[in-house]
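Following up on my earlier thread - several people asked me to post the actual chain instead of describing it. Fair enough. Here it is, all 129 residues.
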Amino acid sequence: MGQGTEPAAHDAEPCATVDVGLTRVFGILGKRWSGLIVAVLTQRPAYFVELRRAIPKISERMLSDRLTELAEAGIVVREVDPGPPLRVSYRLTEAGEALGPALGELGSWAEKYLPGGAAECTEGAEACR
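Reply from S.P.:
Thanks for posting it. Predicted structure:
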């Protein structure tokens, strides 16, 4: 608070409880890397190795775990492509694709309100991980 300003008055009413839908969404997308995986897949289906390259710093184990969770939530579909070689690809379900506009809005919000922006997202920048 600045000098000479009064604190904002608080209503006597209690805060509303958190929306159940938002709780469920953040239970899935609030986990580290999940939102980024979905964001990459909004561009097109991808093989595991492509996802790994598109998201620097994620371990293979973490990527595998998050993809499994997203598949269980009905957001991602795992497809085994006939080989040889045997390859596994991932794509968004209809529910996953519906997240695209919301993720785009979050990206726009971040560019406007979070310090640093894309210019500071270089290798090793903590805010970009």
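The helical segments are 20-29, 34-43, 48-54, 60-72, 94-97, 100-113. That should answer part of your original question.
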